[in-house]
Amino acid sequence: MLRGVVTADGGDPVENAGVSLYKRQAASGEGAASGQVTPFETTTSDDTGAYEFSNLPAGEYLLAVMSSPWYAMHPPRSRASGGGNEEASPLDVVYPVTYYDSTTEEDSASPIVLGPGAREEADLSLHAVPALRLQVPVLQKENGIARPELRQTVFGVQVSNESAGFLDALQAGFVEFTGIAPGHYELMHGDPPRIVELDATSSQAIDATAGTPAVTVAGTLRTTSGAALPENVILTLEPVGGPGRSIMQTNARKGQFQFDAVAPGAWSLSALNQGNPLPVVTVSTGGAAIAGNQITVKDRPLSLLARVSGSLLLIKGFARNQGKGEAGAMIVLVPRQSSAYRALVRRDQSDSDGSFTLRDVPAGQYTVVAIEDGWRLDWARRDTMARYLPHGVAVTVPDRGEAVVSLPVPVPVQAR
């Protein structure tokens, strides 16, 4: 259980504060990178400022709180001010996103480690700061004007998306975002759209040419076996590095998909059908297919062909050390092609008799390694695993066949 109280300046309780709990991945049989932070649960504080998360599994967690001062007012300012030359109202204040232990810097958030059955308390204090405002030029189109959007992310997950008011936009030539807290934002504006990464510390007017042009990423989705795709496939583009960029989603209809306004950079593509993963095993952008699920977006529209594995199998085997079953060994399934590592790596722990099961494995070529006391290794990096590969066991997972692949020989346990 995790509980706490959210307070404001002077110790007053903050009611209806949005409290979000994130979990840092450790061991995962589904390929999640070690250290990756994912959303876990959300709640709101009551009239005493108290919140609670119950029945939490053991692990490492992070907390973020979003709220607004009940008394805050954000009056608009004139265009001539450029967003920052007029005297600010004392009520034009905001609470920045606040992380445990009461820091507004995401990188300084303190982790909360919960053991089995643990009960921990995590209080947070919010401090009001002067609100910022952004003035963004708008372009008139045939059917109106290009609507700017301001997005904010927490641990890579989009938590807010707002559009500024448009009552006076056509006459003034700009729109204004008010009540903005200091922090990192992604601004999309213009037509064709441009994306600006903002570390907002003061009010400002955005230049019409600011940012990087965003492009369309479209393509075709197929299965590796040639079988028909499921009806409802949800595709996700997730940024690789580059803090501040938000995750994007779209649906694949009859195998066709499109993401609009994608920022340049490295992205990973994943697919789900009714909550079940369809691992993306190869991506082609006009040339030869590249193993894995990563793409690089540049300054022009991108067309690609992605292939998913519709058959997810189990790999069963035994870890042996000097002829005996080894309990507690770290088992890592390493894809043969390095570009596929992030998408296809799997991990397990051997049982008391040395047996293990690697789940949700798509078709492909792999090497299985077993490492004694390997839990402190950065297994999410292929170069860390490279030294163990010569003594691993090679396995080929077919696209069709039995649901379980049994290794023909035991996997030797190697010293860390």
What does this structure look like?
The chain has about 425 residues and is mainly β. The chain has 4 domains: about 1-130, Carboxypeptidase-like, regulatory domain (Immunoglobulin-like, Sandwich); about 130-215, Sandwich (Immunoglobulin-like), CATH 2.60.40; about 215-310, Immunoglobulins (Immunoglobulin-like); about 315-415, Immunoglobulin-like, CATH 2.60.40. Strands 32, 33, 34, 35, 36, 37, 38, 39 and 40 form a 9-stranded mixed sheet that branches. Strands 2, 3, 5, 7 and 8 form a 5-stranded antiparallel sheet that branches. The longest helix is centred in the middle third of the chain and has 4 residues, at about 170. It is globular and about 80 Å long. The two termini are about 35 Å apart. The relative contact order is 0.11.
Unreliable residue stretches: 27-34, 79-84
Shape: globular
Radius of gyration: 25 Å
- Classify the beta-strand content into a percent band: over 45%
Provide the CATH top-level class of the largest domain: Mainly Beta
What is the fold-level CATH name, i.e. the topology of the largest domain?
A: Immunoglobulin-like
Q: Mean of the pLDDT scores? A: 87
How many helices? The count is 3
Total domain modules: 4
Tell me the number of strands. 40
What's the arrangement of secondary structure elements?
Layout: E1 2-7, E2 18-24, E3 37-44, E4 50-53, E5 59-66, E6 93-94, E7 98-99, E8 112-114, E9 120-121, E10 124-125, E11 129-130, E12 132-137, E13 140-141, E14 144-145, E15 149-154, E16 157-163, H1 169-172, E17 174-180, E18 183-189, E19 194-200, E20 204-205, E21 212-213, E22 215-223, E23 233-239, E24 248-252, E25 256-262, E26 265-273, E27 276-277, E28 280-284, E29 290-291, E30 294-297, E31 302-308, E32 313-321, E33 324-325, E34 330-335, H2 341-344, E35 346-349, E36 355-361, E37 364-372, H3 382-385, E38 393-397, E39 404-406, E40 411-415
